[in-house]
């Protein structure tokens, strides 16, 4: 086979940026794969742009790791549902329920069952409770986050003596 070039398949070209193993060499997580429904993602983005007053207040209280160093996401898709707030470390979903939830108790119980089937804990707070007693709401969320982080061996060692969650374990030794 002189003069004829045979392609070698053991040397494939490297994937384009954004393909293959993912960003920084990490494999895509199962949560990324679950969130592939474009319509659901667009709806979640729209809900982030137009929050209810209760969701706006809750976001002010939870954003930027204000609650013990735990990071929260808002309007996080879990197909076919969207969680109001989600903490990945604690595997915790927070739902703010208003008057619209009075008629949809059956739907809410189906949603809660779907979240719990994924190993998530669901906390529900009425809008009036969030406005009237936000300190008690934050205390409840914080205690559940601490308990859930301690249960998971990946994150249990990242709580310092003051109960603050540290993103990286090296900060605890300093």
Walk me through what this model shows.
Strand 1 and strand 2 (81-87) form a beta hairpin. The chain has helices spanning 30-34, 38-49, 53-62, 105-117, 127-132, 134-151, 170-173, and strands at 73-78, 81-87, 92-97, 121-126. It has a four-stranded mixed β-sheet, sandwiched between helices. By secondary structure, it is of the alpha+beta class. The protein is globular and about 50 Å long.
Strand content bin: 5-15%
- CATH class of the domain at 51-165 reads Alpha Beta
User: What number is the mean pLDDT?
Assistant: 78
Number of helices: 7
Report the strand count: 4
CATH H-tier superfamily of the domain at 51-165: VSR Endonuclease
Write a brief caption for the model.
The protein has seven helices and four strands; from the N terminus they run αααβββαβααα. By secondary structure, it is an alpha+beta fold.
Please supply descriptive tags for the structure shown above.
alpha+beta, 174 residues, 14% strand, 39% helix, 4-stranded mixed β-sheet, 4 strands, Endonuclease, Chain A
SSE layout:
Elements: H1 30-34, H2 38-49, H3 53-62, E1 73-78, E2 81-87, E3 92-97, H4 105-117, E4 121-126, H5 127-132, H6 134-151, H7 170-173
Parallel strand pairs: 3-4
Antiparallel strand pairs: 1-2, 2-3
């Amino acid at each position: 086979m002189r003069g004829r070039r045979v392609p070698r398949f053991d040397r494939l070209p490297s994937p384009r940026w954004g393909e293959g193993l993912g960003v920084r060499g990490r494999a895509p997580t199962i949560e990324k794969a679950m969130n592939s429904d474009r319509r659901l993602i667009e709806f979640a983005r729209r809900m982030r742009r137009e929050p209810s007053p209760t969701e706006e207040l809750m976001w002010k209280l939870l954003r930027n790791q204000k609650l013990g160093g735990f990071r929260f996401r808002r309007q996080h898709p879990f197909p076919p549902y969207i969680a109001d707030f989600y903490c990945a470390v604690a595997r915790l979903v927070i739902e703010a329920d208003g008057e619209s939830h009075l008629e949809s108790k059956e739907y809410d119980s189906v949603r809660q069952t779907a979240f719990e089937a994924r190993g998530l804990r669901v906390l529900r707070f009425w809008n009036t409770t969030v406005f009237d007693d936000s300190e008690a709401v934050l205390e409840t969320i914080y205690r559940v986050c601490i308990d859930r982080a301690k249960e998971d061996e990946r994150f249990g060692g990242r709580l310092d003596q003051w109960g603050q969650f540290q993103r990286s374990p090296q900060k605890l030794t300093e």
